[in-house]
Amino acid sequence: MAGDDSRGIDQTPTWAVSVLCAIIIIISIALEKILHKVGTWLTDRHKKALYEALEKIKAELMILGFISLILVFSQYYIADICIPTHVANTMLPCPLKDEKGKGDSGNRRLLWYERRILAGDKKPECKEGHVSLISVKGLHQIHILIFFLAVFHVIYSAITMALGRLKIRGWKQWEDETSSHNYEFSYDPSRFRLSHETSFVRAHTSFWTRIPLFFYIGCFFRQFFRSVSKSDYMTLRHGFISVHLAPGSKFNFQRYIKRSLEDDYKTVVGVSPVIWGSFVVFLLLNVHGWQALFWASLIPLIIVLAVGTQLQAILTKMAFEITDRNAVVQGIPLVQGSDKYFWFGRPQLLLQLIQFALFQNAFQITYFWWCLYEEFYSCFYEKLEFLIAKIIIGDIVLFLCSYITLPLYALVAQVP
Fold first, then answer.
1. Where are the beta strands (DSSP E) in 201-303?
2. Among 101, 157, 278, 375, which one is least packed by beta carbons within 10 Å?
3. Phi/psi of residue 20, each to 5°?
């Protein structure tokens, strides 16, 4: 068996080589055709933003593929780099093992890994007291991690967009109501009302919200229960149309928000150098005993909750401004948005934080499945409660960010 494993391509049947190459080529061409068809479908339906998002995903997959090729070509050159053993034994992600493993299970794992080494039988030669910087086996495992990143990036991006569009689709019935007679009667522009009696102001203001602590506590919890109410949608719609269109214009605001979500999605699916840097920092800090896997999974959750709270705070501040500006309003209250409501006066910063949170969460989920595949879960997840908490947190962040926070941002960011 050892002799079979070490055979080169010159000792491999031509039918085996040709069949394997044919299968790989067919799969690659099929994937390319599918992506091309999707791009054509988006272009035909004038989904420019989604088409650009698809091009970004394809570019990122190309980067990951290029990294993979570099690893394949340079794996033995990297393995030939030798470092002292005492240096190689520092900052390990799992407890240090002896070379023989632990009992029969250790031997089985070593044999299992040997069968999965990419190719060749060349072994690095290091002098006594030195080992390879990264072994060929370790480079192969990194290679598998990159493959997992590519696959899960596509899946995660699709889920994110699907949940966001599902949320905005629920606003269609509110948009349809704007063409009914009941809407014209309920929101008659000639009607005068006290500002504090309007649905939007009443939903966002109270005595307690005037107190800073309770103000943010209320905004924090509102994102879970009523992230976007009917009065929110109608008021923001009225504010947008009053500024950008002539009075009485028939405008499908829900469709406009859907296109805005697609524009935001184009940004969210991108991976900036800063985000790639966070990926490297995580790999550096994933040291045994530091519980980096668990703490890193909390970062996206904290970011998403903070951004959602801030977006709700913006709606509440708009409601306060209406009551402070006018005691009586005509028709629907007119909201006046401003960049001053956003952190550092930069609305785009919230979108960048959403992008960072989604990538980090996607990477954490990818890393979990990679550990499961490589059978690393026994040392990376020594405590079952950490493993369960990580899975739950990852699912919560995906749902919150895609179904609640991102659509809410697409709506609030349109306020003039």
1. none
2. 375
3. -65, -45
Residues 160, 283: one domain?
A: yes
Residues 193 and 341 in one domain: yes
Q: Where do we find the tokens 């009914």?
A: 180
> Rounded to an integer, what distance in angstroms lies between the CA atom of residue 278 and that of residue 358?
13
Residue 331's region, left for phi above 0, alpha for psi from -120 to 50, else beta, is left
Q: Is the dihedral of CA 319, 321, 325, 331 positive or negative?
A: negative
Residue with tokens 């966070």: 278
Q: Is 192 exposed, middle or buried (0-12, 13-18, 19+ CB in 10 A)?
A: exposed
The pLDDT of residue 123 is 61
pTM metric for this prediction: 0.79
150-207 pLDDT, tens per residue?
A: 888 888 888 888 898 899 888 888 888 877 766 665 665 555 565 656 777 777 777 6
Calpha distance 348→410 (Å, rounded): 11
Q: Which residue has the tokens 């000639």?
A: 190
Query: Are 321 and 204 in a shared domain?
Result: yes
In-domain check, residue 149: yes
Residue 3's domain spans which residues?
1-46
Name beta bridge partners: 402: none
Note whether residue 24 is domain-resident. yes
Please check whether residue 59 lies inside any domain of the structure.
no
**What are the C-alpha distances in Å from 261 to residues 133, 147, 350, 403?**
45, 28, 14, 11
Spatial distance between the Cα atoms of 223 and 336, rounded to a whole number of angstroms: 21
What is the rounded distance in angstroms from the CA atom of residue 32 to the CA atom of residue 37? 9
% pLDDT > 90, the chain: 3
3-state helix, strand, coil in the chain (%, to 5): 75, 5, 25
Element (H, E) at 120: none
19 with 153, same domain? no
* 324 within domain boundaries: yes
Exposed/middle/buried for 151, CB within 10 Å: 0-12, 13-18, 19+? middle
Residue 304 binned pLDDT confidence (cut-offs 50, 70, 90): very high
For residue 247, the SS3 value is coil
Structural domain count, the chain? 2
